[in-house]
Write a structure and sequence with these properties.
By secondary structure, this protein is an alpha/beta fold. The protein has helices at 9-13, 34-43, 62-67, 85-93, 103-115, 178-183; strands at 21-24, 48-51, 71-76, 97-100, 119-122, 136-139, 142-148, 152-163, 168-169, 185-196, 215-218. Strands 1, 2, 3, 4, 8, 9, 10 and 11 form an eight-stranded mixed beta sheet that branches. It has a three-stranded antiparallel beta sheet with strand order 5-7-6. The longest helix is centred in the middle third of the chain and has 13 residues, at 103-115. The chain starts with 8 loop residues before the first helix and ends in a 13-residue tail after the last strand.
């Protein structure tokens, strides 16, 4: 019988190794797999390359990994804000590398990684500092940049409901970077609010197929029955 549910987030992330590339879903706090990230902070894997839309708050999200000196490189769209003190400090010291990608380009690079497309051309970022050093080509009289696909060793994603095979349904804005990240990692771990039996989810509502999901963690089991619904 296919059973992908892990007892808790700590068990689901315990085999992560130093130097791994990690994709973290979410848009701000919406759709952020908070328990998985917190478990990784406790687990302590270092020299990580983390791909995320933004770094989150000081005590939550990717920022917590940065504060715990676990991140070697961060690839994101929105790295800086009032919450980015630790990131800025490490950038000044040269202890962390930052790669900024326009949000649409970041999403497409991840989607390409999941689709098996190694690279693609886009006009976004051409004639800007973000395009410096990148290969260019002109299409229809407009300069395009060559952008390379992003793939991860692991993806942490957040969904609302799963069946025990790992078919996923999202709630509202959970459906941001989570679906594309699910397809682009060797091991995708989904943090969900509810796990049901196979057949209890309407197939027409499934967004991420079970073939992309390797491990499930039920958020309700992580905090004394309290369910976090990150919409």
């Amino acid at each position: 019988m296919i059973q992908k549910k892990f007892e808790n987030a700590a068990k689901a992330v315990e085999d992560m190794q130093d130097g791994a590339t990690l994709l973290v879903g979410g848009f701000g706090g919406s759709g952020l797999p908070s328990y998985l990230v917190a478990a990784l902070v406790e687990q302590g894997a270092k020299d990580l390359t983390v791909v995320s839309n933004n770094i989150g708050a000081v005590s939550d999200g990717v920022a917590a990994l940065i504060s715990n000196n676990q991140v070697r490189k961060i690839i994101c769209s929105f790295p800086v804000g009032p919450h980015a003190v630790d990131l800025i400090e490490r950038l000044k010291k040269g202890t962390i590398e930052l790669e900024i990608a326009p949000q649409g380009t970041l999403a497409e690079r991840i989607r390409a990684g999941g689709a098996g497309v190694p690279a693609f051309y886009t006009p976004t970022g051409a004639h800007t500092e973000l395009g410096e050093g990148k290969e260019t080509r002109t299409f229809d009289g407009q300069m395009h940049l060559l952008e390379h696909a992003i793939k991860g060793d692991y993806a942490f994603i957040k969904a609302y409901r799963a069946d025990r095979w790992g078919n996923l349904v999202y709630r509202k804005t959970q459906r941001n970077f989570n679906p594309v990240m699910a397809t682009a990692a060797k091991t995708t771990i989904a943090e969900v609010n509810e796990i049901v039996e196979v057949g209890e989810i309407d197939p027409e509502t499934i967004v991420t197929s079970s073939v992309f999901v390797h491990r499930l963690v039920q958020a309700e089991a992580q905090h004394e029955g309290k369910v976090l619904v990150n919409e």
